[in-house]
């Protein structure tokens, strides 16, 4: 499992929002979709998903509803709210800026030392 | 939010929590099942798939806790957190906690006691079914509850407003279950008494109107539950047995239910007997004469009839009675009053006094709240740094306030419970109190659910009230400033709300101290006032010869033997008999007419003096001073011309002067002439606070009576003299029931009202004083601790002790002075009311004025002593190092 990356703290919420933005999902479905999109590189502990889901519901970014799953089992489906969609946009933008800044910092090459001139 | 709604929401949060729990559980299960489905699809056996899915999910309990937290902390969780936090905070400052709890316990306790009395005497009707439709029937302008039996029969039979109307009378009798006569107290009642009150027997049956067949026709009695327990050892066979009531056989018909004490609140009878048997029980029949008014009436209004309609109905009956019997019933009128305290006769003063007490108790509670308010404010100021730190660390103001309020409510509930517990103990003692010798007083003041509810409510409300005081302080606080600079910067306005509270409280305290001092002085006065007789060194024996079977014809001979026997007891210096001792319970009056009168109807009477039938030796034995004329002798008997001895007031009213009364005549209602042969000093007869009453003494030999009080004056110790008297009486007639005590002890009943007032005011005054001390103490310590650094610097710079004290304590002392002055003035005004209850209660008494000023000074000194010491010992080095 060495090819799986540990999740950076604080990013799980963003991943969930993104996963749900593609269509309503139940908890296990969220897990599957994140795995599917990331090519199974992101490791999420299964149980850790639920506190995050509950938090997002309380913050009003997700809505939850009981329904029937594709396996004919009862499951709670999560859906993005308008506010959640807005939040996803902001977060994505912020993330992209951070990633850009991080990568430009990490890719910087050493400059010649002024004393040496 | 009230306490109960918050409890409810906590409970519902708990319930909600369990439903949320269930939902989480289901969601987790759904997840694991989906995962297991996937694993099965990839070829793993179902059982193994399930196990693996569960393992992969991770620690369920842990995640569920996180889920709860993610949903936001619950009310109950925060509440418990607040509780724990408050508990810690309170335990950390035990001094503050104890003072606060004690203060509140005193306030709540005082209120619980007084409210319980108010509840028992005023709010709660008689403990009878449908008591709100029961009314006492009163007569005339002065609203006397005393009625005559003939009027009762007319009222009962002619009215259209009452479902029923019963008559009753309180009287004593000797009850003998077999060679053991003992004085006892009973109600003589009309046959319909139990039916009108609506009670059912505990054992056997009650008597009813159908049992009555004329006078002395119903040989039945009904025992009270407690008398059946104590005298008959709760033996069910007592029902049906025969006992002797004043030597007449009666059958015990039944036992009344426990808790039933009849139609008055203050009296617990030992048994009930039919009023038609009055002649057997009292020795004479007072029911035959329409003019003889000695019974009380209670009626139950018909459903839908208002008291006003019933009064109008009775008014028309009164008009007919007045027309038919102009001599006895001319000008008669009837009205209704709340039952329980002999109508308005006792009820009026009792209600006024208890209401006034309640007001004072309310003020005490207000003072306690004011106190706690300033305590809490001072504490909030001391903790401003802690609070600022919490705010700076991200706690919300709401959370901080809620925690402060939780503290306040915890203190108020603890204090409230402590107060109620204390009150319950006190009330239990009060319920069994027998303040009047040899009369079964019943004070049903045990707290009930209403009392507990009101006390808890008061505790809770006052908790909120003083808990709110520091709120503004917290809301205004700027955490960054306070953390940086410490809590010293607040300059404060000249007079804060706290100061006003403190002044109010000192005023209340001063009022209480003033009135209790006035009451105590009044009581001391009444103990040493001139009663018109000398209670010291006199023994009283109270008996009724009817109890031993002597009728009026045989009484005089027996009375003569009693006097002789008493005079023979070694140590007896004077012996006399009287039909009823002055200042004992009850009295009798007779109308008198001018010597020239020709019309002998009630309305033409010259006066209605109190009448005492006495033996020749009575006035000497009682120590009543003869001012002119002569005493009675044994020759003033039925064959001699009628004579009387009068007091000065009688002479002033009838003869317009007390100097020439001796030798003059007056007439009684039957027109016979009576000559005044002696004049005695004025005295007190009915109550200590009465206006001067006219009184007349007539010889027992000319107006026979079986009611006999024996007065024996002696120079011997009552401890030895009493038994000697007892033995002599027993030797005379072993079957004669009697009670014996010193006259001073007998006066307890006369002093009862002023004693109660004094004790009540004394207790409230003490409470007020304690609260004032804690209040001033709190204020002074706050003031000192706030300025301790400044004081230290001043001392370091060489300030004089006087200057330091002035700076530290000037303000509390000024407030104390202001409050005391206002309280003294108010207290003096209030004591005018007291004068009605306590004999010679006058506020214009230098001792009282000086006493109040001294008391307030001592209070101030006691309260500021510790803070002053702390201010004087402020060590500048230490203080500067601390900062």
What does this structure look like?
The complex is a heterodimer of chains A (117) and B (883). Chain A has helices at 12-21, 27-37, 49-59, 82-106; strands at 5-6, 25-26, 42-43, 62-68, 74-80. Chain A is of the alpha+beta class and 117 residues long. Chain A has one domain (5-98): Arc Repressor Mutant, subunit A, CATH 1.10.10. In chain A, strand 4 and strand 5 (74-80) form a beta hairpin. Chain A is elongated and about 70 Å long. The termini of chain A are far apart. The model of chain A has no long low-confidence stretch (mean pLDDT 82). By secondary structure, chain B is α+β, with helices and mostly antiparallel strands. A six-stranded mixed beta barrel of chain B has the order 3-4-9-6-8-7. Chains A and B meet through helix 2, helix 3 and strand 5 of A and helix 1 and helix 3 of B.
In short:
With 117 residues, chain A is of the alpha+beta class. Helices cover 49% and strands 17% of the residues of chain A.
DSSP helix count of chain B? 28
Provide the helix percentage of chain B. Answer: 40-55%
List the chains of the largest interface with their residue counts. A-B, 20 and 24 residues
Radius of gyration of chain A: 19 Å
Please provide the count of β strands of chain B: 21
> What number of structural domains do the residues of chain B give?
4
Please give the domain count of chain A. 1
Q: Regarding CATH, which class of chain A? A: Mainly Alpha
Average of the residue pLDDT scores of chain A: 82
Structural class of chain A: alpha+beta
Summarize the amount of helix of chain A as a percent range.
40-55%
State the separation between the terminal residues of chain B, measured CA to CA: 40 Å
Rg measurement of chain B, Å? 37 Å
Low-confidence stretches of chain A: none
List key phrases describing it.
heterodimer, A: alpha+beta, Arc Repressor Mutant, subunit A, 3-stranded antiparallel β-sheet, two-stranded parallel sheet, 4 helices, B: 883 residues, alpha+beta, 4 domains, 6-stranded mixed β-barrel, 6-stranded mixed β-sheet, 28 helices, globular
């Amino acid at each position: 499992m060495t090819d799986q990356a540990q999740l950076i703290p604080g990013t799980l919420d963003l991943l969930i929002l993104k996963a749900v933005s593609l269509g309503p999902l139940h908890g296990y479905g969220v897990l599957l979709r994140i795995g599917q999109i990331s090519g199974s590189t992101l490791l999420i502990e299964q149980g850790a998903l639920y506190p995050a889901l509950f938090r997002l519901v309380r913050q009003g970014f997700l809505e939850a509803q009981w329904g029937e799953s594709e396996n004919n089992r009862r499951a709670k489906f999560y859906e993005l709210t308008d506010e959640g969609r807005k939040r996803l946009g902001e977060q994505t933008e912020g993330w992209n800026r951070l990633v850009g800044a991080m990568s430009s910092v990490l890719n910087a090459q050493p400059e010649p030392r002024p004393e040496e001139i | 939010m009230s306490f109960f709604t918050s409890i409810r929401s906590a409970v519902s949060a708990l319930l909600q929590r369990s439903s949320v729990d269930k939902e989480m559980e289901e969601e987790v299960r759904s997840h694991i099942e989906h995962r297991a489905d996937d694993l099965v699809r990839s070829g793993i056996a179902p059982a193994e798939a399930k196990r693996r899915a569960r393992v992969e999910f991770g620690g369920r309990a842990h995640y569920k806790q996180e889920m709860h937290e993610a949903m936001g902390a619950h009310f109950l969780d925060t509440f418990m957190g607040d509780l724990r936090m408050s508990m810690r905070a309170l335990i950390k400052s035990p001094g503050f906690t104890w003072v606060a709890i004690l203060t509140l316990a005193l306030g709540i306790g005082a209120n619980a006691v007084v409210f319980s009395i108010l509840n028992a005497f005023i709010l709660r009707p008689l403990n009878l079914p449908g008591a709100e439709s029961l009314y006492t029937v009163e007569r005339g302008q002065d609203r006397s509850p005393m009625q005559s039996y003939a009027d009762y029969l007319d009222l009962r039979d002619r009215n259209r407003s009452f479902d029923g109307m019963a008559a009753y009378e309180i009287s004593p009798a000797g009850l003998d279950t077999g060679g053991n006569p003992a004085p006892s107290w009973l109600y003589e009642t009309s046959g319909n008494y139990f039916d009108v009150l609506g009670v059912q027997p505990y054992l056997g049956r009650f008597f009813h109107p159908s049992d009555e067949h004329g006078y002395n026709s119903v040989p039945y009695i009904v025992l009270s539950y407690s008398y059946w327990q104590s005298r008959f050892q709760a033996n069910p066979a007592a029902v049906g047995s025969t006992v002797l009531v004043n030597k007449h056989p009666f059958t015990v018909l039944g036992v009344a239910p426990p808790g039933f004490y009849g139609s008055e609140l203050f009296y617990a009878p030992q048994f009930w007997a039919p009023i038609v048997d009055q002649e057997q029980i009292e020795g004479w029949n007072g029911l035959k004469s329409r003019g003889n008014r000695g019974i009380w009436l209670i009626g139950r209004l018909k459903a839908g009839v208002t008291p006003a309609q019933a009064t109008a109905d009775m008014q028309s009956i009164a008009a007919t009675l007045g027309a038919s019997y102009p001599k006895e019933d001319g000008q008669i009128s009837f009205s209704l009053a709340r039952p329980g305290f002999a109508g308005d006769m006792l009820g009026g003063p009792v209600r006024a006094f208890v209401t006034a007490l309640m007001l004072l108790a309310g003020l005490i509670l207000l003072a306690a709240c004011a106190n706690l308010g300033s305590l809490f404010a001072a504490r909030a100021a001391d903790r401003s740094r802690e609070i600022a730190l919490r705010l700076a660390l991200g706690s919300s103001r709401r959370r901080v306030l809620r925690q402060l309020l939780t503290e306040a409510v915890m203190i108020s509930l603890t204090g409230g419970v402590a107060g109620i517990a204390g009150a319950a103990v006190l009330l239990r003692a009060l319920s069994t109190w027998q303040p009047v010798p040899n009369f079964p007083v019943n004070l049903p003041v045990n707290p009930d659910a209403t009392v507990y509810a009101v006390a808890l409510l008061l505790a809770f409300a006052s908790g909120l009230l003083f808990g709110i005081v520091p709120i503004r302080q917290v809301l205004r606080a700027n955490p960054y400033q306070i953390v940086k600079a410490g809590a010293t910067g607040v300059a404060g306005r000249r007079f804060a709300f706290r100061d006003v509270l403190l002044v109010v409280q000192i005023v209340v305290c001063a009022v209480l101290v003033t009135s209790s001092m006035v009451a105590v002085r009044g009581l001391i006065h009444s103990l040493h006032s001139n009663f018109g007789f000398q209670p010291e060194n006199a023994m009283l024996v109270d008996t009724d010869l009817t109890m031993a079977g002597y009728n009026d014809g045989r009484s005089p001979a027996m009375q003569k033997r009693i006097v002789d026997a008493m005079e023979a007891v070694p140590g007896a210096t004077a012996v006399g008999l009287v039909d009823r001792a002055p200042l004992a319970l009850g009295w009798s009056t007779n109308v008198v007419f001018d010597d020239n009168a020709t019309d002998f109807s009630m309305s033409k009477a010259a006066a209605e003096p109190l009448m005492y039938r006495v033996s020749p030796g009575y006035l000497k034995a009682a120590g009543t001073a003869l001012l002119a004329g002569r005493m009675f002798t044994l020759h003033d008997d039925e064959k001699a011309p009628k004579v009387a001895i009068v007091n000065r007031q009688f002479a002033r009213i009838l003869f317009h002067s007390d100097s020439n009364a001796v030798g003059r005549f007056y007439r009684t209602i039957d027109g016979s002439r009576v000559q005044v042969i002696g004049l005695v000093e004025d005295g007190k007869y009915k109550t200590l606070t009465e206006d001067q009453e006219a009184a007349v003494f007539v010889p027992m030999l000319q107006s026979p009576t079986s009611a006999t009080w024996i007065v024996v004056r002696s120079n011997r110790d009552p401890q030895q003299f009493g038994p000697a008297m007892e033995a002599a009486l027993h030797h005379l007639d072993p079957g004669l029931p009697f009670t014996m005590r010193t006259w001073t002890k007998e006066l307890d009943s006369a002093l009862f009202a002023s004693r109660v007032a004094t004790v009540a005011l004394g207790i409230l005054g003490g409470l007020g004083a304690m609260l004032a001390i804690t209040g001033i103490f709190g204020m002074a310590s706050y003031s000192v601790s706030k300025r301790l650094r400044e004081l230290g610097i001043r001392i370091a710079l060489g300030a004089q002790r006087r200057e330091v004290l002035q700076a530290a304590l000037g303000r509390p002392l000024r407030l104390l002075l202001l409050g005391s002055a206002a309280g003294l003035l108010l207290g003096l005004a209030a004591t005018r009311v007291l004068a009605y209850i306590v004999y010679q209660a006058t506020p214009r008494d230098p001792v009282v004025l000086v006493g109040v000023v001294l008391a307030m000074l001592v209070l101030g000194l006691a309260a500021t002593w510790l803070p002053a010491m702390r201010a004087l010992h402020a060590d500048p080095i230490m203080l500067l190092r601390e900062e």
